[in-house]
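Box 3.1. Reading complex inputs
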Amino acid sequence: MIALETLLRQVRGLDAAELEEWIEARWVRPERVASGYVFQEIDVARVHLIVELRHELLVDAEAMPVILNLLDQVYALRNRLKSVAAAIETLPPETQALIRERLKD
Amino acid sequence: MAARNPYEVLGVKKEAMADEIRTAYRALAKKHHPDLNPGNKQAEALFKEISAAYDLLSDADKRARFDRGEIDEAGNEKPRAYAYQDFAEGAPGAKYRTSHENMSPEDLDDLFSFFGRGGARGGHGGEGATIRMRGGDRQYALTVDFLDAVNGAKQRLELAPGKSLDVTIPAGVRDGQVLRLAGQGGPGLGGGPAGDALIEIRVAPHALFRREGDDIHLDLPVTLGEAVLGGRVTVPTPTGAVTMTVPPHSNTGTVLRLRGKGVAGNGDELVTLKVVLPSDSNAELDTFLKDWAAKYPYDPRKGMRT
């Protein structure tokens, strides 16, 4: 967990006003405490991601929520897929083999 | 010795100002300097560590890069220090999954509604019920020669490396038509039947023939003599060459029909004549035509006048 000031120092090319906008737009959702914001690891990683998308890949502000939403959907699906895979791992080996066979192409 | 964080080594805060760092370094360096601790290996190692930490933190540029996670304690380039995916895919990702109000984690349970399609059956119910499922259909594409599509053929289809299937191409198969080969798809589950192979046929074009429905179209070049005087010409058809009579005074564009020479005996072959002059100039023909044209003028472009 880090504070906003630390985050600003850690992320190259990020300024406070910009970050405030992102928080306002709910692209990043740090926890609000008495002394300001607290960023979890995932929030930090997400800020890095947004900086890359915004500054390096020049994704515009209109497109950003769409992209973030789609990315989060992909990751959510992958998360779900992992639980499906985990569930499959608990099945008898021959059933697992059948599933693998079915997924081959 | 595992590298320690340089801030820790110098005992300063991450936010420390440059002169705080300098002061901290000097105090530690004095304490652990090897010359002041002769023979003390631990002090020597510690001093090296302190020097390295100061080296990094006293250089504003290096310090900033370290803070950003671009270089490690020893000043070496680090691979990307973060990956959103690592968090987003895991449990912490739940925080953003409900993002943008249009997707809740519950929606993902749709995933499970995909299960059971395609005929899962609950055996006899109750205890020991087994799932018996038909295998999935598999999709393939197969390109066949124009003439094979017209006349029918057998063609080998690679299903997977080392696994092939002889496909009977029915005569008259059309471009885009899908052949269903029962039982050649994915294996069934729990004794269920195998699925089907669905093979989409693509018909390659032919250099001479065109196909329209069950009819075959062909452009046939004829000589000036054959066009004017008529004659017997050899014409290719999908089932081999045949002889056809060109009636006298057949113009370019005249269509002659060869009955039953279409696709699989159903359609016809429609032959469009195309008058072709000899490729070399011919003085005799020129002379003849000069006289003839002067004597018998005609205007083939009469209908084009506006």
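In summary: Chain B is about 25% helix and 25% strand.
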